[in-house]
Specification:
The structure holds 2 protein chains of 2 kinds.
Chain A (H helix, E strand, L loop, with lengths): L2 H12 L4 H6 L25 E3 L8 H4 L3 E4 L7 E2 L2 E2 L2 E9 L16 E2 L3 H7 L9 E3 L5 E4 L8 E3 L3 H16 L5 H25 L1 H5 L4 H17 L9 H6 L4 H17 L1
Antiparallel strand pairs in A: 1-2, 1-9, 2-5, 3-4, 5-7, 5-8, 6-7
Helix pairs in contact in A: 5-6, 6-8, 6-10
Chain B lengths: L8 H4 L11 E3 L24 H8 L13 E3 L20 E5 L6 E5 L25 H35 L3 H11 L4 H8 L3 H8 L6 H19 L5 H4 L12 H6 L3 H8 L5 H8 L3 H4 L6 E5 L5 E5 L4
Antiparallel strand pairs in B: 1-2, 1-3, 3-4, 5-6
Helix pairs in contact in B: 3-7, 3-10, 4-7, 5-6, 7-10, 10-11
Classes of the chains: A alpha+beta, B alpha+beta.
Chain lengths: ~270, ~325
C-alpha cells in the first residue's frame, strides 16, 4: 500500500470521536464547502484565512517549519475602524497523523481539520505537501497583523467554514458546544459587511490595479473610505449603513445604499 | 341592537352578495313557507336563502337536518340581519359559513338575537357568531375541509406563478439577474449564496459574467422569481424580509424555506394568507423540535451595535 493511502486508512480508523459531541459539533456535508473557491486579493483579511510565511510565537519547531498560519480572531474583534488590530489571534497549520487529507476528520477537538487544503492552495497558486492538514487551535497565539498580506494568503474559509471554526474554537476553549445557528445569527452582520468590503474593493480598487497602482496601498485607502461610508449617520432615521445592516429589517436597504455609493464613486 | 338599517325579508330573499374571490358557503335548513314561526331545536326556520344557495342546498341530500354538514360552494352569500326577523331573537337554526376573499378566513355565522354591524370591508355584512344548535364537530370539520382545500389551491397557484416567473428570469443573462438582485433589491452575496447553495465567491464570479452551471442558473432564476412574487404580494424590502425568522419560536426564515424547496410557503406567508405557525407546520410538522430557537440563549444587540448570545433570563 502507498504511504499516502496508509495515511488515509489510519485517518479512517483511528480518529477518536465522542458520540455526544458527534451530535453537537457540526460537520460539513462536503469537505470542499468549508472553503471559498478563490482567495481573492480583494477579500479583506478574515477569520479562517490561511497565510504562508507568518510565524506563530511559541509554536513547536516541528510545526513552525511549515510556516502556515490560520487567523482565529473572531469577526467582531479583528478591526479597529478601517485597520486590523495590531495583534490577532492565530494558530499554526500543520499536518497531523490520523487527520484525513480529503475528508472532515471527526474527533480531534483541539484542532480544525483542513481537508483538501492542498488542492485549494494549488488553485490559489500555492504548493503544499499532500498531507492531512489542520489548524492547531490549541496552540493559538497573537501574531503581528502587519504580516498578514493578502498576496500571501493561500486559502479563505467560506461562511460555513467560519461558523464551523468558531464552534470548534468555543468548544476547544470551554468544552461547551454552541449551536451553529446561534453563531450564524450573531456573526451575520459582520460577515455581510466583509462581503460588502470585498465588493467595494473589487469595484473600486481593481480598476486602479489596471492603471498600475500599488495594491496594498490602494486596499488600505479603500478600507478607510469604506469605513467612513459605513459609519456616516445620514440615512433613514439618522442611521448609518452599518446600523441598518445590523438591524433586523434594514439589511436590504444597507446593501442598496452601499451599491449606490459604489456606483457613484465608480462614475466619479 | 345595531343602528344600521335592517333589510326586510323581501329584500333579503334571493339576495346575492359577492364576497370576492373566496368561496361563500351556505348552509341552511329548509325554509318555511307561510307565517314565520319561532323555531325550536330541530324545527323550522324563517331563513330565506338566496335562490342559488337554496338550489344547491336542495340538491344536496345531506342538508336535511339541523346538524348540517357542508355546503355548496359558490360566489355569493346570504346576508341576514336578525333585526329583520324579530321572531328569531332566540332562534339559531341557520348556519352560514362564509370565507373572506383569502382562503383561511372562514368562520361560522349564526343567527342570534344579538345585533350585528356591517363590515366595512365586506358588503356581505358577515360577522362571526357563536354557533348554536349545530353540532360543533361537524361544523368545525366542514370549515377545516374547505379551508384546507382552499389553501391547497392557493399553494398550487403560487407554485404555478413561481414557475412562470422562473422561466422569465431564465431568459435573462445571469449577470443581469444578479445585478438587479444585489444592486436594486439589496440582496447581499451572503444571502444570495445561501439561497442558491453556493459561496459568496461564486455569486461574485457570476456577477462578473463568469460561467454558471445549469443547475445553479435554475436556482438563481427560482430565487429571483421568489423575490419578484414577494414584491407583488406587497412585501416591503423582500431582500431583508426573507432573512427574518418566520416566528419568534423558530429560526426558520423564508430563505430557509426556499432552500428546502418551499418557496411557495414563503409567498403564502408574505401574502398574509397564512399564519406563521401554520406555515411552519406545513414546512415541517416537527419544527418545534428541529427548528426551535435555542432555549438557553438569546441573540441581543449590544451598545456598540455588535451582537452577542446571552443566556436567557428564564433559562
Amino acid at each position: 500500500m502507498e504511504p499516502q493511502d496508509e495515511l488515509e486508512t489510519e485517518a479512517a480508523q483511528t480518529a477518536p470521536e465522542d458520540p455526544i459531541l458527534a451530535q453537537r459539533l457540526d460537520a460539513p456535508s462536503d469537505p470542499s464547502e468549508i472553503y471559498l473557491e478563490e482567495a481573492s486579493v480583494y477579500r479583506p483579511v478574515s477569520t479562517g484565512d490561511i497565510f504562508v510565511d507568518v510565524p506563530v510565537p511559541g509554536c513547536p519547531a516541528d510545526d513552525a517549519h511549515f510556516s502556515l498560519t490560520m487567523v482565529l480572531a473572531h469577526p467582531s474583534a479583528m478591526r479597529r475602524g478601517a485597520l486590523l488590530e495590531p495583534l490577532l489571534r492565530a494558530a499554526p497549520v500543520a499536518p497531523r497523523m490520523g487527520v484525513s487529507k480529503k475528508k472532515w476528520s471527526r474527533g480531534y477537538y483541539d484542532l480544525y481539520p483542513l481537508p483538501l487544503l492542498r488542492q485549494v492552495a494549488a488553485a490559489n497558486g500555492f504548493e503544499l505537501e499532500d498531507r492531512g492538514w489542520c489548524a492547531l487551535i490549541g496552540l493559538a497565539a497573537p501574531v503581528d497583523s502587519s504580516q498578514l498580506e493578502v498576496t500571501h494568503r493561500l486559502a479563505c474559509l467560506s461562511p460555513d467554514g467560519i461558523h464551523l471554526l468558531l464552534q470548534r474554537l468555543v468548544h476547544a476553549d470551554t468544552r461547551v458546544p454552541v449551536r451553529i445557528d446561534l453563531l450564524q445569527e450573531v456573526f451575520e452582520p459582520k460577515l455581510a459587511e466583509l462581503e460588502m468590503l470585498e465588493s467595494w474593493n473589487e469595484d473600486l480598487v481593481a480598476p486602479l490595479q489596471v492603471e498600475g497602482a500599488d495594491l496594498l496601498g490602494a486596499l488600505r485607502k479603500a478600507a478607510e473610505e469604506f469605513e467612513e461610508t459605513m459609519s456616516e449617520c445620514k440615512h433613514r432615521g439618522g442611521k448609518s449603513i452599518r446600523q441598518l445592516l445590523e438591524s433586523d429589517t434594514g439589511a436590504g436597504e444597507a446593501h442598496r445604499l452601499l451599491h449606490e455609493e459604489i456606483r457613484r464613486r465608480g462614475l466619479g | 341592537m345595531s343602528g344600521n338599517p335592517s333589510p326586510s325579508a323581501a329584500e333579503l330573499s334571493g339576495l346575492r352578495v359577492n364576497v370576492g374571490q373566496g368561496a361563500a358557503l351556505f348552509l341552511a335548513q329548509r325554509p318555511e313557507v307561510g307565517p314565520r314561526r319561532r323555531a325550536t331545536g330541530g324545527g323550522s326556520t324563517t331563513i330565506v336563502p338566496s335562490r342559488d344557495a337554496w338550489d344547491m342546498y336542495m340538491s344536496n341530500p345531506r342538508l336535511s337536518n339541523v346538524y348540517l354538514d357542508t355546503l355548496a360552494v359558490g360566489e355569493g352569500a346570504l346576508q341576514l340581519n336578525s333585526n329583520a326577523f324579530p321572531d328569531l331573537a332566540d332562534l339559531a337554526t341557520s348556519y352560514i359559513l362564509a370565507t373572506a376573499p383569502e382562503p383561511q378566513l372562514s368562520f361560522p355565522v349564526m343567527l342570534t338575537g344579538t345585533s350585528w354591524e356591517p363590515s366595512a370591508q365586506h358588503p356581505s355584512w358577515l360577522k362571526a357568531f357563536e354557533p348554536v344548535n349545530v353540532h360543533p364537530v361537524t361544523a368545525h370539520r366542514s370549515v377545516l375541509r374547505y379551508a384546507l382545500e382552499s389553501r391547497d389551491n392557493t399553494l398550487a397557484e403560487i407554485r404555478r406563478r413561481l414557475d412562470r416567473t422562473r422561466l422569465v428570469q431564465l431568459q435573462k443573462a445571469p449577470t443581469n439577474v444578479l445585478k438587479h438582485m444585489t444592486d436594486e433589491l439589496g440582496v447581499g452575496q451572503l444571502g444570495a449564496g445561501r439561497a442558491i447553495g453556493v459561496t459568496p465567491t461564486a455569486i461574485r464570479k457570476w456577477r462578473r459574467g463568469e460561467p454558471i452551471r445549469p443547475e445553479h442558473r435554475d436556482r438563481l432564476a427560482q430565487f429571483a422569481a421568489l423575490l419578484g412574487e414577494l414584491q407583488d404580494a406587497g412585501i416591503y424590502d423582500p431582500a431583508g424580509w426573507i432573512s427574518i425568522p418566520v416566528s419568534a419560536e423558530s429560526f426558520v426564515t423564508p430563505i430557509h424555506m426556499f432552500t428546502k424547496g418551499r418557496g411557495d410557503l414563503a409567498v403564502l406567508l408574505g401574502a398574509g394568507a397564512a399564519e406563521p405557525q401554520e406555515v411552519l407546520d406545513l414546512f415541517d410538522p416537527h419544527w418545534r423540535t428541529r427548528y426551535a430557537v435555542d432555549p438557553d440563549y438569546d441573540v441581543v444587540t449590544l451598545l456598540d451595535g455588535s451582537r452577542s448570545a446571552v443566556p436567557r433570563r428564564d433559562a
